[in-house]
Structures are given as structure tokens and as C-alpha cells.
């Protein structure tokens, strides 16, 4: 009898426990990531940023630790030529619970961020690279986006309502990511910019990935009200190589989640010059950018976006000086914008699209992530893309 009662009680207890677990799973299943995303995307009232990890602060968070770097893979001279500080001066961090994730707090030398910003605004949007405006406009109109936009940036006071530069949302480099099929292909490809390849190769080598080949790039242009939806970058055929991400201009909140949509994400600030590396177990984690921090008023640009010091020897390397005229346009643009470059290696050594698609490598899917919300829309107001989700750049 006694035994019987106990066993009945334990059954009840067990069923309560199961119910509680189900409730908590349901709560998680109700998409913890989306909840956090919405929390930071909210405008009125503005969200509380006190829980956001700030790697630029000395003691950022108890989950943050110093990451190990391969100092020998990039000599001081080579770093200088690439516009980077000596590796011994880099502030690189890992995050507990996210093996393979690395955050490098602005490794750029003063003055060299200007070059990459200019490349993103003036050079990389040019043909044969592909941009969102190409989806809606004839090629004659998307030629010379920079030239067609700068007058408005140079004029004080009244501005055109929207220049092409302000309508730019993404540019693809190398293997051009196809937003509809969520794949890369051998056919849709143009040469990857040599300067960006060299920069990416140097940084990934320091992070323990010598031999990285930058084969595809997605550049994201965030206006003050933009966000990038929750997604995983999985279109690349080889996931053993890291994903490299650069931030320029206004500060954003970056959310790094788990392998499931239900896993709650960790929020961190990403500031001008910061570099993130997603590798190993962190390569295929959900992530998103819910907001820029500066929105909606213009913020003064951080000092790290200033010109190189006058006594700096002219670099005979990668990074060239940006003219004052060009920087005037770039800096005005950046007052309310953020530019992000994400660099990917698509294929493993000796891998081809044909072999991978034939299923030999066991790649059942080549999707960037079903919840990728990047659209081909040219107007920032449009909420939906042609494929039913709005690139972020909502
Ligand atoms: C991406 C991406 C993040 C960012 O382009 O895939 O995740 O910081 N970008 O803008
Ligand atoms: Mn991504």
C-alpha cells in the first residue's frame, strides 16, 4: 500500500515535472531569439542596453576571455602594410559558451578604416559586382552609383530625398550569393577584390586559419533604421573555414544565438573597426543585427575613423590614402550608417560545385537559412522582399 501510494505520488510528481518541462520548452520553442531581437529592435521607448557586452570596455563581462592569436603568422611589417596594428597590440576575445567565436576589437591602424569605407561606398558597388539596385534597375542606371550620388552629399542644406548611395542595401563579391535560391554557383562569379582578399587572409591566419581564401563577400549597408533578420550562413559548401565580419561606422547590436532558433542569444556591441570571426562550433550559429545604436540622430564619428597621423610613412601596401573629397562624402554617409563586410570561403580544397551538388559530399541543403530576411528591395521602407522576407535592411 505504502509503496503503491509513493509510486502514485511520484507519478503525479513526474507528470507535474513533465508539464513544467513542456512549458519551459514551449517558452523556448516560442522563439527566445525572436523575443530578444524584438526587444532590441524596439524604438519607443528605446531598449535598455545595459546587458549588451561591450568589448571596448576593460572588463567587458565575466563570459569574456582573452583569445589566443598566432602572432607569428603576421609580421609587424606585413601588418603595417595591411593597415593593421602589430598583432601583439590586438585585443582579441573569446566568449564562454561559444567555442570558435572570436571578437577582435578594432585591429586597424588609425587612418586605414577610411580606405575600407571608401572601397565599400565607391569601388565595390561597381560592376561586375552585384547590388540590390540591379534587381530593379537597368544596368545603365546602376553604373557609377558613387558619381551619381556625391553631389547631394557635398551640398550643404537641402539634399536629394534619396541618392542611389542611400538606397544601396547590399553588394555581393566573388561568388555572388543568390538571394532567391540561397545558393552560390560556378556561373555567377566575378573576381574577388585582391585588397579585401589580402586583408581577410592576414586576419584569419592570425586567428589560426592559414590559407583562407576569400571567395564570396556580402556587404551590408545599414541606415539608422535597418536591421538584419535572424539567420544562419550555411550556403557555403565547406563550413570548416571561418566566417569573417567587419564593421564600419555607427555601432550596432549583434546577437549571437545557438544552433536552434529557440536558443536565447547573447547581445554585444559591434563598433567601427571591430572584426568578428565565426569558426568551428560557432560557424553555423544563428545571429542577427536588431538595431543600430545611434538611431535616429547623427552621431559624431569615432576618432578611429579619422585620417592617418601626419608622420605616418605613406603605405606602399594595401591601404591607400583616401582623398579629402572622397572622405567628405564617406563621413557624411557614415553619420547615420553602418557598413558591414562578411567574407566567406565557399569551397574546400579541391571541392567543386558539381561534385557537391551530385551529393557526393552529403550536402543536402545549400541554404543561407530559412529565416534570412534579406531582400532585394531597393527602398528601405519596403517590408517584404520578392521572396517573402525583407533583408533586414528593413
Ligand atoms: C551577414 C551578417 C552581420 C552584421 O551578412 O551574414 O550576418 O554584423 N552580417 O551586419
Ligand atoms: Mn550572417
UniProtKB/TrEMBL annotation:
EC number(s) stated in the UniProt entry for this protein: 1.14.11.33, 1.14.11.51, 4.2.99.18
Domain Alpha-ketoglutarate-dependent dioxygenase AlkB-like: 101-344
Region (Disordered), start-end ranges: 364-394
Needed co-factor(s): Fe(2+)
Recorded GO MF terms: broad specificity oxidative DNA demethylase activity; class I DNA-(apurinic or apyrimidinic site) endonuclease activity; DNA N6-methyladenine demethylase activity; ferrous iron binding; oxidative RNA demethylase activity
A single Gene Ontology CC term: cytoplasm
Cofactor note: Binds 1 Fe(2+) ion per subunit.
SUPFAM superfamilies named among the record's database cross-references: Clavaminate synthase-like (SSF51197)
InterPro entries: Alkb, AlkB-like, AlkB-like_sf
Localization per Swiss-Prot or TrEMBL: Nucleus
Keyword annotations: Dioxygenase, DNA damage, DNA repair, Iron, Lyase, Metal-binding, Multifunctional enzyme, Nucleus, Oxidoreductase, RNA repair, Transcription, Transcription regulation, Translation regulation
Annotated Fe cation binding sites: 231, 233, 287
Gene Ontology BP terms: DNA repair; oxidative RNA demethylation; positive regulation of gene expression, epigenetic; regulation of translational initiation by tRNA modification; RNA repair
Top-level division of the source organism's lineage: Eukaryota
Stored PANTHER family: ALKYLATED DNA REPAIR PROTEIN ALKB-RELATED (PTHR16557), NUCLEIC ACID DIOXYGENASE ALKBH1 (PTHR16557:SF2)
Quaternary structure, from the entry: Monomer. Interacts with DNAJB6.
Protein known as: Nucleic acid dioxygenase ALKBH1
Organism for this UniProt entry: Electrophorus electricus
Amino acid at each position: 500500500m505504502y509503496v503503491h501510494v509513493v509510486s502514485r505520488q511520484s507519478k503525479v510528481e513526474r507528470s507535474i515535472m513533465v508539464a513544467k518541462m513542456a512549458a519551459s520548452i514551449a517558452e523556448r520553442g516560442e522563439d527566445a531569439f525572436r523575443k530578444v531581437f524584438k526587444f532590441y529592435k524596439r524604438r519607443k521607448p528605446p531598449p535598455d542596453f545595459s546587458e549588451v557586452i561591450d568589448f571596448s570596455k576593460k572588463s567587458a563581462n565575466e563570459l569574456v576571455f582573452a583569445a589566443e592569436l598566432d602572432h607569428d603568422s603576421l609580421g609587424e611589417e606585413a601588418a603595417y602594410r595591411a593597415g593593421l596594428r602589430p598583432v601583439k597590440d590586438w585585443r582579441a576575445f573569446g566568449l564562454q559558451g561559444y567555442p570558435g567565436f572570436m571578437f577582435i576589437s578594432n585591429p586597424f591602424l588609425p587612418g586605414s578604416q577610411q580606405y575600407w569605407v571608401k572601397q565599400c561606398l565607391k569601388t565595390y558597388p561597381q560592376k561586375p559586382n552585384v547590388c540590390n539596385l540591379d534587381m530593379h534597375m537597368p544596368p545603365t542606371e546602376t553604373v557609377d552609383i558613387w558619381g551619381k550620388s556625391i553631389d547631394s552629399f557635398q551640398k550643404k542644406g537641402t539634399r536629394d530625398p534619396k541618392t542611389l548611395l542611400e538606397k544601396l542595401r547590399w553588394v555581393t563579391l566573388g561568388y555572388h550569393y543568390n538571394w532567391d535560391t540561397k545558393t552560390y554557383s560556378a556561373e555567377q562569379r566575378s573576381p574577388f577584390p585582391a585588397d579585401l582578399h589580402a586583408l581577410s587572409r592576414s586576419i584569419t591566419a592570425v586567428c589560426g586559419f592559414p590559407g583562407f581564401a576569400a571567395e564570396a563577400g556580402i556587404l551590408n549597408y545599414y541606415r539608422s533604421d535597418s536591421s538584419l533578420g535572424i539567420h544562419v550562413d550555411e550556403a557555403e559548401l565547406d563550413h570548416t573555414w571561418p566566417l569573417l565580419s567587419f564593421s564600419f561606422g555607427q555601432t550596432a547590436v549583434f546577437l549571437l544565438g545557438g544552433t536552434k532558433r529557440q536558443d536565447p542569444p547573447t547581445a554585444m556591441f559591434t563598433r567601427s573597426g571591430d572584426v568578428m570571426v565565426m569558426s568551428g562550433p560557432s560557424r553555423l550559429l544563428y545571429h542577427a543585427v536588431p538595431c543600430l545604436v545611434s538611431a535616429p540622430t547623427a552621431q559624431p564619428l569615432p576618432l578611429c575613423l579619422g585620417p592617418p597621423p601626419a608622420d605616418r610613412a605613406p603605405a606602399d601596401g594595401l591601404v591607400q590614402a583616401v582623398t579629402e573629397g572622397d572622405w567628405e562624402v564617406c563621413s557624411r554617409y557614415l553619420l547615420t550608417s553602418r557598413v558591414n563586410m562578411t567574407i566567406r570561403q565557399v569551397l574546400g580544397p579541391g571541392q567543386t560545385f558539381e561534385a557537391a551538388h551530385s551529393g557526393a559530399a552529403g550536402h543536402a541543403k545549400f541554404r543561407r537559412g530559412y529565416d534570412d530576411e534579406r531582400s532585394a528591395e531597393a527602398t528601405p521602407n519596403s517590408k517584404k522582399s520578392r521572396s517573402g522576407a525583407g533583408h533586414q535592411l528593413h
